[in-house]
Amino acid sequence: MTARCPLPFPRMRLAAGAAGVLLALTGCGSTEPDQTLSDDPAEVEGGAVGPDVRLDDDVGLQQVQLEYPLDGVHEAGEDARLFMAVTNTGGEPVTLTDISGPDFGGVRVETAEGQGLPLTVDAEDTLYVGAEGPPDVTLLDLGRELRSSQSIPVTFTFGEAGEVTVDVPVSAEGQNPTPPFDFPDDDPDQDPTEDGTSTSSPTT
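The line above is the sequence of Copper(I)-binding protein; the predicted structure tokens follow.
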């Protein structure tokens, strides 16, 4: 299922010093060179804010991050939930077909229909992963210890837009990457209230 929200999203600005994102763009239909925002992607200084990346003119990932561990550390062998939004401003659906990386043993994907990939994002729509209800994505059997602001590379493959590798950080302590994330969910043009205040939140 997908969650509607105003599109396109404004790209979220990383906190000062939060440049620990390595983007390896391959096969994503872009002529731009690979982007490297840090020589050391292992840790994001000043607290992690999930990075925003684009695969092409239509498809993007926003606020990609791992949940903050209750005890402060994800031990090797533990699992970690993944939070993000997948935006599609194009006129055709897109499908997320694979999630992979060297620092975890597999992925568990739970949807309203059952389990497993692919995940489909409808045209001009947004899919919230880890929001209110499915889909939920969990990285299984982490290969190393991870603390707040440390990151691991995760490759997202789309059937239509190619693939992108993102260094995904662990959320900072006190940051709760649950719905509605930090995305604006109010649109004055669609606001039913007279005072311009929206009380709605993304739905699934």
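Note on the example: The chain has one domain: 22-172. Residues 1-48, 183-204 have pLDDT under 50 and may be disordered.
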